[in-house]
Specification:
CATH topology: Nuclear Transport Factor 2, Chain: A
Largest sheet: 5 strands, antiparallel
Helix content: 10-25%
CATH class: Alpha Beta
Shape: globular
Order of helices and strands: EHHHEEEEEEHEE
Structural class: alpha+beta
């Protein structure tokens, strides 16, 4: 899945747009979107996706799980740990036309009875050939707080003194 084993050392991931190198010619569709995503710096090579992909390359009994996204994600659901799954496919806007937006969740699955516990760590958008990381709730909240405080950055000095008026000669002198 991953082409470059080196860790990402660029700008913060939620501030970049990533696009695959030109050699990715498969096109993005249901069965390729996770493999396309795996080439990006957003992808974690310690995830169950990578484990399953490597097993599929080297073990003929696991290879069929690489054929379709449904089989691949079905196999991921049997595993515990970090995984990337398609949370939402592109919505259809008309016959044969769609939004082209895929939503991918980075999540941890913990096997429990009767239902697995899922903790979502991040959300990513594949828009056409571009991949973006969604801002976290904390980032949104902190930016709104900073935006809210902007008008108040100028220190407000309360008027604690009143003008002083002295009138002893018939004329007023005002200080203040």
């Amino acid at each position: 899945m991953a082409l470059d084993p080196a860790p990402y050392t660029g700008p913060p991931l939620d501030e970049i747009q990533w696009r695959a190198p030109p050699e990715f010619e498969m096109g993005i569709h249901s069965n390729s979107v996770l493999f396309y995503f795996a080439q990006s710096p957003f992808y974690d090579r310690t995830s169950n996706n990578e484990v399953l992909f490597q097993q599929g390359l080297n073990n003929p009994n696991v290879t069929p799980y690489l054929a379709t996204r449904e089989l691949f994600e079905g196999r991921l659901k049997t595993m515990s740990g970090l995984e990337f799954v398609v949370a939402q496919e592109p919505a259809e806007t008309g016959p044969g036309a769609g939004t082209g937006v895929w939503v991918i969740n980075k999540q941890t699955r913990r096997k429990q009875t009767p239902q697995d516990e899922i903790i979502v760590h991040g959300t990513y958008f594949v828009v056409g050939e571009n991949i973006y990381m969604a801002a976290s709730f904390a980032d949104i909240l902190s930016s709104r707080i900073v935006g809210f405080n902007c008008p108040f950055r100028i220190p407000l000095v309360p008027r604690t003194h009143r003008p002083l008026t002295i009138s002893n000669t018939g004329s007023d002198i005002v200080f203040g």
